[in-house]
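User: Quick sanity check before I run a bigger batch. Here is a single chain. Can you write out its predicted 3D structure?
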Amino acid sequence: MSSSLKRRDGFIGEKLFAIPQKILKEAKERDPELFPIYITNIGYFPKASFHYRERRKGCEDNILIYCLQGKGHYILDNKRYEVSSNQFVIIPATDKYMRYWADKDDPWTIYWVHFTGDNMEAFNRSLNLSITRGPVQIPFSEKAIEIWQNIYQTLEMGYSAENLCSASFCLYHLIAIFLFPQRHIQNDKDNEGDIITKTINNMRNNLNKKLTVEDMAVKHSLSVSHFSNIFRKATGMPPIDYFIHLKMQKACQLLYANGDKIKTVAVDLGYEDPYYFSRIFKKYIGTSPEQYRVTAKNTG
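Assistant: Done. Predicted structure follows.
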């Protein structure tokens, strides 16, 4: 494979999150009992031509890959495997050399999740997850895709403690779908939204604007004080803090996936002053935009 064609990401239609370490650390320190395992990165790569990833020192996370279509390959501790459609692999945390890539002629479409915890060795041992366990064939799993999408959509709504906790709890269900597929049945979907959900979706659709609490409250015919109270009770944050939080989450995505200048990212999120944007970003994420881009690219 020509090195000039190798790609870690950047595929048309892809989805991905690299959750900032500062946010994960704070959530764990606040409620350690709720995060025995948790998601660090999550993504979807459709028809990922020339996808290639090399990890010379292994990976500290477990890596779950579900191949929906096409084929891919991976080498782990000098042994090579092929992953075909409707197969999954869970590569446990290891310091062994690994690399994985999409098939040249039939590139894979994959859903993937990186997850870790404070006692992954025991976790993996209890589930008989070892580096010698290769890909596993399963029937097409609509339920697995639904759960993955639920996790992704939850994280899209922001990195609040509740959302991170919900995603981690759903992670158990996702793992169970693959390891114990015969134990699970399809459940009905519930798409009912409430004031909070509708407000957050409105925030997400207007990340390039400067919304006020008044703008949000009037949509639901509520007073500012009443709206602010119910929003804070549901999310743990004031509405404007949550809106900024979503802007910074989107900034993380743009910095990770694109090569845009910091000024361009700032403007896309409604900040005319890139220096002010950088200060806000560091306040919420714990590092500068430049540092986050470098760190996320090295750990994603």
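The CA atoms of residues 229 and 238 lie 8 Å apart.

User: Great, the batch can go ahead then.
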